[in-house]
Amino acid sequence: xxxxxxxxxxxxxxxxxxxxxxxxxxxxxxxxxxxxxxxxxxxxxxxxxxxxxxxxxxxxxxxxxxxxxxxxxxxxxxxxxxxxxxxxxxxxxxxxxxxxxxxxxxxxxxxxxxxxxxxxxxxxxxxxxxxxxxxxxxxxxxxxxxxxxxxxxxxxxxxxxxxxxxxxxxxxxxxxxxxxxxxxxxxxxxxxxxxxxxxxxxxxxxxxxxxxxxxxxxxxxxxxxxxxxxxxxxxxxxxxxxxxxxxxxxxxxxxxxxxxxxxxxxxxxxxxxxxxxxxxxxxxxxxxxxxxxxxxxxxxxxxxxxxxxxxxxxxxxxxxxxxxxxxxxxxxxxxxxxxxxxxxxxxxxxxxxxxxxxxxxxxxxxxxxxxxxxxxxxxxxxxxxxxxxxxxxxxxxxxxxxxxxxxxxxxxxxxxxxxxxxx
Length: 423
Description:
It contains 14 helices and 15 strands. The protein is of the alpha/beta class. The chain has 2 domains: 2-56 and 251-294, no CATH class; 67-219 and 300-418, Alpha/Beta hydrolase fold, catalytic domain (Rossmann fold, 3-Layer(aba) Sandwich). Mean pLDDT is 88; it is low at 409-418.
């Protein structure tokens, strides 16, 4: 019922939001003499604040039309090359000669409430040096019930299918939440002696072992029984969405949790945004761009969310050697041929320092020459995969690591695969 009330409130505010937007444009119009006065700018700023705080933010665009390779600008084309009901695999195809060889990197974006576009900066930083693919997870509220369910096992299967599709010598980069299923996928493939297992695996700010330096997020999951989450945060998608009646963890709940962790910071940011609009100074576009991305959220399937909370945050199944995939124990010791890079942020308040490094401990059979850990000073969770320090310090290390552990120089597969739910 709560989800239905949320939707009803959003619909009820629509005419007021539209009226506010029209009035804002009128007061901000340079032909209106009031637009050049503090009074007019205050009215316009107030109306914009109202419109932005009552709007639903849609999925943003990646917006990466070009990059620079070897000092030259090249065009980039975004294309879907593999598709399933809950995920599209996007390829950022660079307009380069056929014989140009760069490492092929699969970025596995988090399925934790935000869209894959949150990693726009990650993609942008790697594009000059790599052939980049990314998982574009689909909002669960947009997937009809007839397309079936999506759980933790399906997530692992999707990763394995994408690695099979991309072919040998693919390097996988997992950002935050997917660190666990990506490590599980590598273990499953290695145990099966799969020749298409990734050449390297980079885990960034991921909850491999949340018993280490637990954060507020970890403590919440640990303090509540799984039944509490099932009773309090799982809701059915309301009509008329395509996923009507699908049980989900709504994105707006995840967003409210994230914002409450740093509420003071968000309030100050919005206050400064308002004052910049009134004074007609500063750079309001940076604020708009950030919050257009940050406030755009998606729903997660209930089964995936609950299994992740249970296995990763309550039972700590992976580091304890108790994680199961399709009825079989996942054995990280089976990983022998996949190079491992772990990256953490010194001030990470989502995945505490040491949680990602734990992968180095549980993957005992990776040779020392094929493993590396890096702790980035002075960055929080977001800075592990985005921002100036990521571009200058972390991205070059990732590129150097994957190049060092490349197995061949075979080009990426160019076929397109679309299909139903994986079995």
